[in-house]
Specification:
Layout lengths: L1 E5 L2 E5 L10 H30 L15 E2 L15 H7 L30 E2 L4 H10 L7 E3 L6 E4 L30 H14 L4 E3 L12 H15 L5 E10 L2 H4 L3 E4 L2 E4 L1 E6 L10 H18 L8 E3 L11 E8 L4 H18 E3 L2
Parallel strand pairs: 4-12, 5-14, 6-7, 6-8, 8-13, 11-12
Antiparallel strand pairs: 1-2, 3-8, 9-10, 11-13
Helix pairs in contact: 4-8, 7-8
């Protein structure tokens, strides 16, 4: 005990003040508070890491928001089960990683409710944290060298969603086989693949272009049939090393989407995006490090040609047949609000970017 004078009187004070009893409720609050603090610290760490990547990844710049875009590479319930409210992300104006809950099935184009997408540097599906961090670290690695042999066909272009088509243009109408789809190869994404082939050949590559319709009997199983096509060509042409699956993306608001293009050397060009699959739910997984670094290198070259030419690379849990080679690209060339001419113009610059990344004969 100690003595202390208070208002002229001496009172006795305990040496150790008595501690208030903690109720179960206060303990729970303390645990929750600690969890929130740890979560904020983890989020801040990821934000700092992504901010450091900003100069090496493609950004959309001042172009129209991608909020109306629908991912046509497979079935995504965009933001339906997001672990972070995208409105909070947009309000904070920070680059972030967001989650999308998927079932791993590689399905076809599906309509989605409109939802805003954050202006972030990279889009992730729900992936294990170690894979997320590993992919983020890829951006800090020295650029990977890519080369293909000088003999025989080196590149195969094909289309998992062969009937994808673009906005109808007066005087260039096509017969529809569904919304923004046609069996007319001259009016579909097949024509974009042919433009890409011609441009790649001008840079010295030997390119094959397969136009098989992989969609029947169901769009949801198209990837299984395009895989058979890839394996058939790989067996017939062992010199093939690079596989490019050419798609077109989709846009909910077609009128708004008409403004979504860039102008390069006086030509209107559709914007492009690469999709990389990690194959989380498959026994045989793709070499997503190599495929990602290839997509990143081509994206960066396109951004050098014109800032805003690309959307951020999308990393997904699907596989997209990218296990066939460590040089696989899935490229979305524009969307249904673009014109076919804009998509074909973009394909020429995709070939130029690839020619700056992939050497021949080294």
């Amino acid at each position: 005990m100690m003595k202390k004078r208070r208002y002229g009187h001496i009172v006795h004070m305990p040496l150790i003040p008595s501690m208030p009893r903690r109720t179960p409720c206060s303990v729970i609050k303390a645990i929750l508070f600690t969890a929130i603090i740890l979560g904020l610290v983890f989020s801040a760490a990821l934000t700092i890491k992504l901010t450091g990547m900003r100069d090496t990844l493609a950004l959309g710049g001042s172009l129209p928001s991608d909020g109306n875009r629908i991912d046509a590479s497979g079935d995504d319930r965009l933001f339906s089960d997001s672990v972070i409210d995208p409105r909070l992300i947009l309000g904070a104006e920070m680059p972030v990683i967001y989650g999308i809950d998927t079932d791993g099935t590689e399905t076809g184009e599906t309509e989605h409710d409109e939802a805003p997408q954050p202006q972030s540097d990279i889009y992730f599906d729900v992936l294990p944290d170690d894979i997320k961090m590993e992919i983020l670290d890829f951006n800090n690695d020295a650029p990977k060298s890519f080369s293909i042999g000088a003999e025989g066909p080196q590149i195969l272009i094909y289309h998992t969603h062969t009937l994808e088509a673009y906005r109808q243009i007066d005087g260039q109408e096509y017969v529809e086989a569904g919304s923004w789809r046609t069996e007319d190869h001259d009016s579909s994404v097949v024509a974009v693949g042919e433009a890409l082939k011609t441009a790649l050949e001008s840079y010295g590559y030997t390119v094959l272009h397969d136009t098989t319709n992989h969609e029947p009997p169901s769009l949801k199983t198209a990837y299984s049939r395009s895989l058979e096509t890839m394996e058939k060509y790989a067996k017939e042409y062992p010199t093939l090393q690079m596989f490019i699956d050419v798609h077109r993306d989709a846009y909910n608001d077609v009128e708004a989407g008409r403004k979504d293009y860039v102008t390069v050397n006086g030509e209107e060009c559709a914007r492009m995006m690469f999709v990389v699959g990690t194959g989380e739910k498959y026994d045989v997984k793709p070499n997503y490090e190599s495929n990602y670094k290839l997509a990143l290198a081509v994206t960066n070259e396109l951004e050098k040609i014109k800032k805003g030419f690309t959307r951020p690379i999308r990393v997904k849990t699907g596989r997209y047949n990218q296990q066939v080679s460590d040089m696989c690209l899935l490229i979305e060339v524009g969307h249904n609000a673009n014109s076919l001419e804009q998509a074909k113009n973009a394909a020429k610059y995709a070939a130029l970017a690839i020619s700056r990344v992939v050497d021949i004969g080294n």
